[in-house]
Amino acid sequence: MSAENGAFLDITGDVCPMTLVRVRMALDKVEPGGVLRILMASGEPVASIPRTLKDEGHEVLGLDREGDAFSVTVRKKA
Amino acid sequence: MSLTEAEILRYSRQIILPQVGGAGQERIRQGRVLVVGAGGLGSPALLYLAAAGVGTVGVCDGDAVDPTNLQRQVIHATPDVGRLKVDSAADALGRLNPGVEVVRHPVRLTAANAPGILAGYDVVVDGTDTFASKFLVNDACVAAGVPYVFSGILGFEGQVLTVVPGRGPCYRCFFREPPPPGSVPTCAQAGILGPVAGALGSLQALEVLKLLLGVGELLVGRLLLFDGLGLAFREVRIRQDPRCPACGGPEHRRPLADEADGACSG
């Protein structure tokens, strides 16, 4: 976790729906407009979590491959 | 105190809802809810509130479990016959969710004891079964400024109304007085099918959780009518009465008192 990237959450060890539960819990602790970086497995999580976040009005700033996983950066809606 | 890992897992299916989340679950855990009457309505309400993780659940009932209760009062079981309902309910809730603190009030709610029993609760569920008790729960909650969820059931039908003092009408705004003895249902009409109580008690628990979470549209000013035979809901808009003896202006208010109970209290 680095200060400029804001909060960090690793859900590579979780499966649906706990993946989204972890994201909810982590987003609760982020200020509106703040940034959360989420490391998630490829496949179902990366296919569904960013879409859910967008549907709920958050902004997905980036989606980057990190080895076998993906790093998703999200800005919490204000 | 933030949620433990065990709590996050246990409540994951509701934390996942955007209207709940971790912050909402903490509000549910901080909630203190009193259920008056551990009967047909109170059974599902108590079970769902404890299952949802409401931190403190109070049970107020002076009766013991009777064999005729078991057909609809699903929090009690056959071995509980003869036990105080508050004890039977507390045991069931403890098995369901040991994380919930259950407070027992093994008395019938009266005008004299109501203010003391209500003190410290955030929300009340009316699970009583007589007109006198329903007016008392209403008047005591309005006087204490505590929101409560009314329900009444008979046969295949039921009603639900959420009363938030200062934000809408109360039960007495609409049903001014208990019906005169003789006009009330007789014992022959005291029949009730269990799932009707289950449906309406569950709706009461839903309203309580919405109140604790601060989400959704409450049944404030809307009396929900349930017809189990036709399986239909409809609602009646009701207005706050400025001359209501419970929630009206100071010159109209009456002190808290017990109503005479002419009805059969099935």
What report would you give on this structure?
The complex is a heterodimer of chains A (78) and B (266). Chain A has 78 residues and is of the alpha+beta class. Helix content of chain A is 29%, strand content 33%. Chain A has helices spanning 18-28, 44-55, and strands spanning 7-10, 35-41, 59-66, 69-75. In chain A, strands 1-2-4-3 form a four-stranded mixed sheet, with helices on one face. The radius of gyration of chain A is 11 Å and the shape is globular. The model of chain A has no long low-confidence stretch (mean pLDDT 91). Chain B is of the alpha/beta class. Chain B contains nine helices and eight strands. An eight-stranded mixed sheet of chain B has the order 3-2-1-4-5-6-7-8, with helices on both faces. In chain B, a hairpin with a 2-residue loop joins strand 5 (148-154) and strand 6 (157-163). In chain B, helix 4 packs parallel to helix 5 (85-96) and helix 4 runs parallel beside helix 9. The longest helix of chain B is centred in the last third of the chain and has 20 residues, at 194-213. The termini of chain B are far apart. The interface between A and B is small, with 10 and 11 residues.
Provide a compact summary of the structure.
Chain A is α+β, with helices and mostly antiparallel strands and 78 residues long. Chain A has helices at residues 18-28, 44-55; strands spanning 7-10, 35-41, 59-66, 69-75.
Class from secondary-structure proportions of chain B: alpha/beta
Oligomer status? heterodimer
Please mark out the parts of chain A with pLDDT under 50 across 5 or more consecutive residues, or reply none. Answer: none
Tell me the strand order in the biggest sheet of chain B: 3-2-1-4-5-6-7-8
Shape of chain A: globular
Q: Nearest-angstrom radius of gyration of chain B? A: 18 Å
